[in-house]
Amino acid sequence: MFRSISGKFIAAVLATSIAVTSFSAAPARADSDDAAKIAVGLATLFIIGKALSDNDKHTVHRHHHYKPHKTRNRHHLPAKCHFVHKTWSGKVEMVNRKCLNRYYSYNASLPQVCRTQANTPKGFRSGYDPRCLRNKGYRIVRF
């Protein structure tokens, strides 16, 4: 994203500077004041271009790959997957199924008896009942 913006910016600055210099063309004269102005203008363009190219080099492109968290104990569930959802009939605690798929290695071994769904204003949410999981020997732990 930065490269296309900075490339367009540099092209616009160069096009503007060329257009301005062509309009102010006058008969050639050797004036040290004009030479100094040109040198300062070129140096400014060089500094701007250099700063933009350095910015592109330091841009880091990160790709998020979610890997399951390797737990020491398969009965420890990540606390970041424990949510309280607001439903039409009140609040419901739930361990989010999608979150567990992302951060928990042993999600296939969770008891299917504990699966639950909740109808929230934002749609259906599926997961596991934390009380049922506690009764089956699972604990919600911060990693």
Describe this structure in words.
The chain is α+β, with helices and mostly antiparallel strands and 143 residues long. The protein has 4 helices and 6 strands. Helix 1 (2-23) packs antiparallel against helix 2 (32-57). The protein starts with a helix and ends with a strand. The model has no long low-confidence stretch (mean pLDDT 77).
| Major sheet characteristics | 4 strands, antiparallel
The structure class reads alpha+beta
Number of helices: 4
Q: How many β-strand stretches?
A: 6
Whole-angstrom Rg: 31 Å
**Arithmetic mean pLDDT:** 77
* Helical content class: 40-55%
What is the H/E string?
HHEEEHEEHE
Strand line-up across the major sheet: 2-3-5-4
Query: What spatial form do the alpha-carbon principal axes imply?
Result: rod-shaped
Unreliable residue stretches: none
Distance between the termini: 35 Å
Strand content: 15-25%
